[in-house]
């Protein structure tokens, strides 16, 4: 059944009005579609799914919110990813061994693959390099459970995944992680961050030969760049699919409603909002928390959501791949992971405004924007000189076409970041610089 979008609340935790999924696609609604692969409340009689290293092909895999044109009805849910591939001559970087790539923090950014032809990558070589760093996650409890994916964040046994994956079994659930070589380990939760839908778990008695995934930079991605998704869709561990970056800075909101730990569920006041990478990668339940990598084998995103087609009656929807998948950029995911590993919790940047979707004049044309309805005293927005009535149309050069877009841009950044806001005030545009601070405790 289609979930009806909740009414707008005065303010989200980062100061902008809460928006429903209807804002990231025209006439879009969030639906209670699980982004993990559900399993029986009782432990399955069959063995755990095959580990990565036994790849199974997955199916191959939409539009930016428009305020003046009606788009097709679609619905967003938390889930996964995948895609289609090409071939070319490639070589493995001989220096990219786990030992050579491991820094003092036990993570790495060195590219494990050097492609001979970036326009026609050899995905087979990339898959060989990346698969050992991607895991299958199984969560079980008396209440239920699910299956998802994760990436080996460091050689100490920390696994980065989605919050909705680890919350699938509710309180008292057991988590097991299967490596690509079929070894399975128990795991415990290190920390969760529901507002970004990210979590870190740690292997119990982690082996010494773990291969941490190489961390890339999502900021250098361009639309059309080739990418590969690796994960555990529908329990088919080791599935590798390829595609392209379909769009960047795509504001996506999801509200995971599956059964699980009530303390991990999103509320109307704190939805998951992601300034997402949109990919044509094929996505299906179970890919959540898996890797989206570039042709060089570096992590550029954590797969977390898909779009699904809803019926006009709202009674059913098309589940699985329809060519529109979303990933949390690695820059944001890596920052949250570091915080969760260090302290078990994460802080988030705060601007201090309330806004609404509106259209403002831009010369002889019009453009969508986030119009401020309130500026909280003493906040970065107030100190920077923002006023109620100002229309924000860009953040650091990235277009803002509504409140959800503003929230996504702010959440993607870190505490202490200085950002430049382009606003329209009294019909004239100007730039205002502000420095983001940590969200006050009252807004957590």
- How would you classify the quaternary structure? single chain
How many distinct beta strands? 26
Helix content: under 10%
Q: Strand share of the residues?
A: 35-45%
Low-confidence regions: 1-105, 256-269, 311-316
Summed up, the helix count is: 6
Comma- or semicolon-separated keywords:
single chain, 444 residues, mainly beta, six-stranded antiparallel β-barrel, 6 helices, 26 strands, 10% helix
Protein architecture, described:
The radius of gyration is 21 Å and the shape is globular. It has helices spanning 98-101, 123-130, 163-166, 330-343, 380-383, 403-412, and strands at residues 37-38, 75-78, 90-92, 113-115, 134-141, 144-152, 158-161, 174-178, 184-193, 198-203, 214-215, 226-231, 239-254, 272-279, 291-294, 298-310, 317-318, 325-329, 349-350, 353-362, 365-375, 391-395, 398-399, 418-425, 428-435, 437-438. It is mainly β and 444 residues long. The chain starts with 36 loop residues before the first strand and ends in a 6-residue tail after the last strand. The protein has a six-stranded antiparallel β-barrel. It has a six-stranded antiparallel barrel with strand order 12-13-14-18-16-15. Strands 20, 21, 22, 23, 24 and 25 form a six-stranded antiparallel β-sheet that branches.
């Amino acid at each position: 059944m289609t979930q009806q979008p909740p009414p707008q609340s005065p303010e989200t935790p980062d100061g902008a009005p809460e928006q429903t999924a209807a804002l990231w696609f025209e006439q879009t609604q969030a639906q209670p579609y699980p982004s993990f692969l559900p399993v029986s409340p009782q432990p399955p009689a069959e063995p755990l799914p095959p580990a990565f290293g036994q790849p199974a092909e997955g199916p191959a895999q939409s539009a930016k919110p428009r305020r003046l044109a009606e788009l097709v009805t679609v619905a967003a849910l938390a889930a996964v990813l995948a895609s289609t591939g090409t071939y070319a001559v490639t070589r493995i970087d001989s220096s990219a061994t786990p030992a050579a790539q491991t820094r003092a923090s036990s993570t790495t950014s060195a590219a494990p693959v050097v492609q001979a032809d970036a326009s026609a990558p050899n995905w087979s070589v990339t898959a060989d390099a990346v698969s050992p760093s991607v895991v299958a996650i199984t969560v079980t409890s008396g209440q239920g459970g699910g299956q998802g994916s994760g990436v080996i964040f460091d050689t100490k046994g920390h696994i980065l995944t989605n919050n909705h994956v680890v919350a699938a079994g509710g309180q008292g659930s057991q988590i097991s992680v299967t490596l690509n070589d079929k070894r399975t380990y128990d795991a415990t939760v290190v920390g969760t961050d529901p507002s970004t839908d990210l979590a870190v778990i740690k292997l119990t008695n982690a082996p010494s030969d773990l291969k941490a995934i190489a961390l890339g930079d999502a900021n250098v991605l361009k639309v059309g760049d080739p990418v590969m998704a690796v994960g555990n869709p529908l329990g088919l561990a080791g599935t590798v699919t390829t595609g392209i970056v379909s769009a960047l800075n795509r504001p996506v909101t999801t509200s995971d409603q599956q059964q699980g730990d009530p303390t991990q569920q999103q509320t109307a006041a704190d939805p998951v909002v992601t300034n997402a990478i949109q990919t044509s990668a094929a996505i299906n339940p179970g890919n959540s928390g898996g890797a989206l990598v570039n042709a060089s084998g570096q992590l550029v995103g954590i797969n977390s959501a898909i779009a699904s087609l809803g019926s006009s009656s709202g009674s059913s929807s098309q589940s699985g791949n329809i060519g529109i998948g979303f990933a949390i950029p690695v820059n944001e995911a890596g920052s949250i992971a570091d915080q969760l590993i260090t302290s078990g919790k994460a802080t988030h940047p705060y601007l201090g405004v309330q806004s609404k979707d509106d259209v403002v004049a831009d010369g002889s044309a019009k453009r969508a924007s986030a119009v401020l309805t309130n500026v909280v005293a003493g906040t970065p927005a107030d100190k920077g000189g923002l006023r109620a009535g100002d229309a924000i149309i860009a953040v650091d050069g990235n277009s803002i076409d509504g409140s959800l877009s503003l929230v996504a841009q702010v959440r993607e950044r870190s505490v202490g970041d200085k950002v430049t806001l382009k606003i329209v005030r009294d019909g004239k545009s100007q730039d205002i610089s502000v420095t983001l601070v940590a969200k006050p405790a009252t807004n957590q």
